[in-house]
């Protein structure tokens, strides 16, 4: 692609981008370059010019203002036209994707890139998941919880219906940072869309427990463990998992815990989320012993381990049989 | 060629930035050591620090490293008990008044496609501080700008000559509703054309696309469309066909909502958009409310006191509203007052989101104030200091508020949490279009 040169647009009558209001609220002090580029872009859009120079102008405009959605839309129309004219739609689209990769690397927080990318893939004659994953990996490596990129990755995997690498990919991010909630939710995305067998669900539960053993005080892994039981196992919590959770609560349910308990008399525990998990599990299976344990767990959470939510724990206690 | 070299360098940088994971066991009071480094008042802190001593086996990762810094900053502000926690209304008012005096510098060009947002954030922030602060002249200038952007009266784009956009239309209607129909501006809004445009960006799956033809489809779009439609009284069955199912599918296993209906990560902003949309549709009972309540509650941190927007992410003042507003909607619809700790949230807002040197409200200590955070932090304060109920669950404009017992008052205006606008203003607007 040749360099951008404003001289290629001298025949275009610019269309004003300022309101001209005498006392406008919060007008932006545009640079001369910005005004020039955008006012020409406005005119070309209005005239519906779909040309190579129009394409170059949108590159420039997007470099100046990546969130300018109107120009993204205009560019999409230009690409649609020019790709057809070129006689090599696939080659043309690939070239466009290369350009988009460059812009993507420089604008990690941008919204427009991702919907534009989706729109391109939909009209690409031979889209490829292999073409997509490297750039996504680079973006995630740089910002491991980037919402747009994770969401786009999910869209992409559904678009290509290729889940092959996804659990491994999410695992690599969890290995890097076990608290990465985006990576945990990606595993659930895969599980929910691949109709796992009972055995596979069990394996996933074991995987999660191993991660909890490394870091017991982690909301992401505990939420995920619960999620697996709720989504795939009808909340049928087994004895083994209850015992597993108890490991992180220092047997405190064997203590006598009432609201007037001295906070200092409660031991330190490894995980408040384990205690919360136990409380909710016991609350779901009615028996005098379970109810009593749930009550003790909620009381302990309220007193010491998660006091900011004491109103919630009290409410849950009130709902016990 | 140049591009490829640049990319190679970029990738090199990224790899260089990757951190090794170090496993370590943190025995006791993990944050105290740091805190003593830059705090002169150690004695004041001892009691508070003791609350944070869950014995943690912790891995030192990007997550813990980032959060340790934030906790350190917040705890020193939260424990400065000699300073009164109060809203510096007059100070923040200066910041909002600037908006009517200044031109935004060229580096703010990033906001060029979001100009109506500035109108809404500034006007609504002033109205929340006190409705008396909004002058007729301010209203006139806001209206003029909105109608300069869309002389036809809607739908609205981000600036003149820009395509209509759901977020810009939402922000414009919100801003205009706060103008109290001065100069008859409400009658210049073209309901019919907004309705037809909303239908044109409606998707088969029940979502809405922010812009035709390339735009995002997520719960933000649904919220913007449904807010505008309900305020202008153009909310038809046709407009919301399949939308309920779309929203239901956005609730993920965590209990909160993601942006898209395919198990996206639960997120405070998208959760608010989904829950407010469900409230507008009178369909809150169609989702898993207990899971949603647990998710919202878990977003409040014991140490920083404020909300984060996703599990294991950092606290941010704007979630005082995105999550706090969700909680307020649940409260209004009768699901209880126990979901958040209001006094602790208020402490985060007043002690961590204000600065003595710079007016305006901010995300967290160390960040600069901006109009966006000023609006949503103040809105968060409003949902903390008032308690909400609804007269008719089918009519979101019938939400009313009264001061919350046991929570001090900052004399902030009560907002309708569904619309993030002062209760009376949005009710008057909706009545005008009935």
Automatic annotation (TrEMBL), chain A:
GO biological process, one term: peptide pheromone maturation
GO molecular function list: CAAX-protein geranylgeranyltransferase activity; protein farnesyltransferase activity
Organism lineage string: Eukaryota, Fungi, Dikarya, Ascomycota, Saccharomycotina
Name of the protein: Protein farnesyltransferase/geranylgeranyltransferase type-1 subunit alpha
GO cellular component terms given for this protein: CAAX-protein geranylgeranyltransferase complex; protein farnesyltransferase complex
Keywords, alphabetical: Magnesium, Prenyltransferase, Repeat, Transferase
Species whose genome carries this gene: Vanderwaltozyma polyspora (strain ATCC 22028 / DSM 70294 / BCRC 21397 / CBS 2163 / NBRC 10782 / NRRL Y-8283 / UCD 57-17) (Kluyveromyces polysporus)
Cofactor: Mg(2+)
Entry-linked PROSITE patterns: PFTA (PS51147)
From TrEMBL, chain B:
Molecular-function GO terms, alphabetical: protein farnesyltransferase activity; zinc ion binding
Region (Disordered): 26-47
Presence of the UniProt keyword Metal-binding in the record: yes
One Gene Ontology cellular component: protein farnesyltransferase complex
Catalytic activity: L-cysteinyl-[protein] + (2E,6E)-farnesyl diphosphate = S-(2E,6E)-farnesyl-L-cysteinyl-[protein] + diphosphate
Annotated keywords: Metal-binding, Prenyltransferase, Repeat, Transferase, Zinc
Pfam families according to UniProt: Prenyltrans
Cofactor binding: number and manner: Binds 1 zinc ion per subunit.
Cofactor: Zn(2+)
Similarity-based family: Belongs to the protein prenyltransferase subunit beta family.
Protein name as it appears in the record: Protein farnesyltransferase subunit beta
Protein species of origin: Vanderwaltozyma polyspora (strain ATCC 22028 / DSM 70294 / BCRC 21397 / CBS 2163 / NBRC 10782 / NRRL Y-8283 / UCD 57-17) (Kluyveromyces polysporus)
């Amino acid at each position: 692609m040749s360099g951008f040169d404003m001289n290629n647009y001298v025949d275009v009558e610019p269309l004003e981008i300022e309101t001209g209001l005498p006392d406008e609220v919060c007008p932006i002090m545009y640079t001369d370059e910005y005004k020039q580029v955008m006012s020409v872009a406005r005119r070309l859009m209005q005239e519906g010019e779909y040309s190579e120079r129009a394409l170059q102008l949108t590159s420039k405009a997007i470099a100046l203002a990546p969130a300018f959605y109107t120009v993204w839309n205009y560019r999409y129309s230009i690409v649609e036209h020019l790709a057809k004219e070129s006689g090599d739609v696939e080659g043309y689209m690939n070239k466009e994707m290369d350009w988009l990769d460059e812009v993507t690397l420089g604008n990690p927080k941008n919204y427009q890139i991702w919907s534009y990318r989706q729109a391109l893939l939909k009209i690409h004659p031979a889209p490829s998941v292999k073409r997509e994953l490297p750039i996504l990996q680079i973006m995630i490596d740089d910002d491991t919880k980037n919402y747009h990129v994770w969401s786009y990755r999910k869209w992409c995997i559904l678009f290509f219906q290729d889940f092959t690498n996804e659990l491994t990919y999410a695992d690599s991010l969890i290995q890097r940072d076990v608290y990465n909630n985006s990576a945990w939710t990606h595993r659930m995305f895969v599980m929910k869309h691949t109709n796992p067998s009972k055995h596979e669900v069990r394996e996933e539960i074991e995987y999660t427990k191993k991660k909890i053993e490394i870091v017991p005080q982690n909301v992401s892994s505990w939420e995920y463990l619960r999620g697996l039981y709720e989504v795939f196992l009808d909340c049928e919590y087994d004895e083994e998992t209850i015992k597993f959770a108890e490991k992180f609560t220092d047997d405190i349910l064997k203590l006598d815990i009432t609201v007037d308990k001295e906070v200092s008399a409660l031991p330190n525990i490894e995980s408040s989320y384990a205690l919360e998990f136990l409380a909710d599990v016991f609350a779901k299976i009615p028996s005098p012993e379970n109810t009593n344990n749930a009550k003790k767990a909620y009381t302990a959470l309220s007193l010491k381990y998660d006091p900011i939510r004491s109103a919630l724990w009290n409410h849950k206690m009130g709902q016990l049989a | 060629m140049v591009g490829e070299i640049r990319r190679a360098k970029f990738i090199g940088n990224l790899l260089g930035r990757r951190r090794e994971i170090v496993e370590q066991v943190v025995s006791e009071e993990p944050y105290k050591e740091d805190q003593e480094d830059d705090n002169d008042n150690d004695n004041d802190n001892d009691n508070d620090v003791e609350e944070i001593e869950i014995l943690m086996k912790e891995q030192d990762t990007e997550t813990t490293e980032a959060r340790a810094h934030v906790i350190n900053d917040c705890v020193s502000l939260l424990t400065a008990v000699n300073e009164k926690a109060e809203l510096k209304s007059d100070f923040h008012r200066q910041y909002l008044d600037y908006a009517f005096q200044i031109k935004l510098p060229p580096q703010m060009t990033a906001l060029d496609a979001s100009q109506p947002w500035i109108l809404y954030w500034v006007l609504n922030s002033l109205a929340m501080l006190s409705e008396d602060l909004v002058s007729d002249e301010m209203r006139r200038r806001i209206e003029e700008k909105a109608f300069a952007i869309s002389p036809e009266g809607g739908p609205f784009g981000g600036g003149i000559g820009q395509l209509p956009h759901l977020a810009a239309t939402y922000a414009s209607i919100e801003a205009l509703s706060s103008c109290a129909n001065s100069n008859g501006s409400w009658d210049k809004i073209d309901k019919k054309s907004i309705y037809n445009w909303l239908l044109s960006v409606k998707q088969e799956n029940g979502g809405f696309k922010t812009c035709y033809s390339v735009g995002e489809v997520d719960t933000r779009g649904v919220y913007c469309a449904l807010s505008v439609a309900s305020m202008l009284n153009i909310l038809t069955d046709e407009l919301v066909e399949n939308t309920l199912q779309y929203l239901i599918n956005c609730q993920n296993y965590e209990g909160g909502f993601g942006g898209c209906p395919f198990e996206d990560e639960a997120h405070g902003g998208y959760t608010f958009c989904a829950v407010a949309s469900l409230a507008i549709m009178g369909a809150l009972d169609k989702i898993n409310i207990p899971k949603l309540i647990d998710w919202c509650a878990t977003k409040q941190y014991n140490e920083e006191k404020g909300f984060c927007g996703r599990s294991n992410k950092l606290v941010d003042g704007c979630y005082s509203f995105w999550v706090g507003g969700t909680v307020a909607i649940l409260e209004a619809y009768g699901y209880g007052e126990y979901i958040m700790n209001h006094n602790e949230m208020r402490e985060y807002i007043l002690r961590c989101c204000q600065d003595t040197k710079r007016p305006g409200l901010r995300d967290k200590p160390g960040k600069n104030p901006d109009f966006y955070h000023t609006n949503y932090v103040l809105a968060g304060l409003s949902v903390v200091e008032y308690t909400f109920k609804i007269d008719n669950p089918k009519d979101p404009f019938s939400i009313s508020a009264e001061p919350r017992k046991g929570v001090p008052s900052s004399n902030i205006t009560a907002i309708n949490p569904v619309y993030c606008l002062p209760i009376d203003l949005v009710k008057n607007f909706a009545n005008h279009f009935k």
